[in-house]
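ARCHIVE CARD
Drawer: 12
Card no.: 0347
Subject: one protein chain, sequence and derived structure
Cross-reference: see card 0346
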Amino acid sequence: MNTIFYVEYDAIHRNPFVFDIPEGHDCWLLVVTQTPAQFWVGGKLIEYPPHCAVLYPPHQKIYYRSCTELYVNDWIRFESDEMYVTETSLPKGEPFPLDDPEFCHKLFQLLVAEHSFQKNYRESTIDYLLRTLFNKLLESCVQENIGPQHYPLMKLRTEIHNNPSQPWTVAAMAKTMNISPGYLQFVYKNSFGVSCMDDVIHSRIRLAKEYLRHHQYTVAEIADRCGYRNVEHFCRQFKQMTGRSPKRFINDMKSPADITEWRDKSHSQALSNGHLHIT
């Protein structure tokens, strides 16, 4: 069971701001920074960049302070007997960079909303949100290469996956990040294991399969909705990625017995072509 004593997002403090609890709290404290801050770690003050998380267990010394004109953070003070909290492998009292700070920020917003109202499923919802938050923190701890381009890259990839029909080009994507097209391709592949244009193609084909499964659009209409200005190019790319044409895909969806066999074949073909097959 979890008991939240206080939770807040976008908490703003003006310089000078110091939070000093020498004996720590009687409960857990989780802080996620949006701006740089100094934390007491290993017997000295160390400055950390924005988008860091730090977890303080009960009775551990807490000391952090602002180092810019405004200090902004999300934070939660809570009690828990859940093993994902009490037995967590997260570092204690030492900030670490977040892989996806926007996602964590949204979880804090949801926690504030759930904590503010006495709804029927409040307790279980708070538990699910905290579990998800701790999972994201654990993912961040094992994430490598969280450099200065990481957060703009995360934002770009989210935009690609959410809007694959946009006229994406390497040059246009690089311009949004103020870096060269060559450097974008290097850091994108290094971060996500797939090139930016292959990511666009994967997203478009995934969307196309959704339209083919659940809508009555023509192949030409689907091609246009997925960002293709040439239906023949769409059909070629669809077959390259899935192992069959859009029309064959529609026909096979009407024959459930064929689906399992096709999935095995198309997955093997996608791997041999160096593509990640997404269903």
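Annotation on reverse: The chain has eleven helices and nine strands. The domain at 150-272 is CATH 1.10.10.60 (Arc Repressor Mutant, subunit A).
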